[in-house]
Write a structure and sequence with these properties.
The protein is built from six helices and five strands. The chain has a single domain, classed as Purple Acid Phosphatase, chain A, domain 2, CATH 3.60.21.10. By secondary structure, it is an alpha/beta fold. Helix 3 crosses helix 5. It is globular and about 40 Å long. It has a three-stranded parallel beta sheet, with no helix packed on it. The N and C termini lie far apart (34 Å). Strand 1, helix 1 and strand 2 form a beta-alpha-beta unit.
C-alpha cells in the first residue's frame, strides 16, 4: 500500500529531514512524498536535501517556494547573493547544473484528482478558482522552463 506524506519548508535542513523520514519509516520504493516548497536556503545542507530528492525524483512531488525560486535565480545569475544566503555549497557542487535543471521543471501547483488534494507553497489568491490558479502557475512554469 502506498502512503503519501506531505511536508513543507525543509529550508536546507537535511539532518532533521532525514530524521523525520526515518521516524515515519519512509520507503521511497512504495511511499510518496509531497514537499510544499522552500526546499533550500537558510539551513546548512541545501545540497544534501536536493541530492536526496533528485535521487528520488519519481517518488517525490514538489512545488516550488520562494527560496527555491531564489536559488534558481542565483544559479541563473539573475540575482546576487543576499546577506542571509546559504546556497554557496549547493551552487558550487559539481551536480548543481543537473539539480537546478531538474528543480526548474518542478511545479508551482500540484493537484492529485485521485487523492482529492492540491498543494501550493504559500496560498492561492482568494479571488482565484482552481482553474485560474492553474493558469497562473502554468504561465510561471513555462517561463522557468
Amino acid at each position: 500500500m502506498t502512503t503519501t506524506y506531505a511536508m513543507g519548508d525543509l529550508q536546507g535542513c537535511y539532518v532533521p529531514f532525514a530524521a523525520l523520514l526515518e521516524q515515519i519509516d519512509f520507503t521511497p520504493q512504495t511511499d510518496r512524498l509531497w514537499l510544499a516548497g522552500d526546499l533550500v536556503n537558510r539551513g546548512p545542507d541545501s545540497h544534501a536535501v536536493i541530492n536526496r530528492l533528485y535521487a528520488w525524483h519519481d517518488r517525490v512531488q514538489i512545488v516550488l517556494g520562494n527560496h527555491d525560486l531564489y536559488a534558481l535565480a542565483r544559479w541563473a545569475g539573475i540575482t546576487a547573493a543576499k546577506k542571509s544566503d546559504t546556497l554557496g555549497p549547493l551552487l558550487a557542487d559539481p551536480h548543481a547544473d543537473d539539480w537546478m535543471e531538474w528543480l526548474r521543471t518542478r511545479s508551482l501547483l500540484h493537484t492529485d484528482p485521485q487523492l482529492g488534494w492540491s498543494m501550493v507553497h504559500a496560498a492561492i489568491h482568494p479571488d482565484w478558482d482552481m482553474a485560474s490558479a492553474r493558469g497562473h502557475a502554468d504561465a510561471v512554469e513555462d517561463a522557468l522552463r
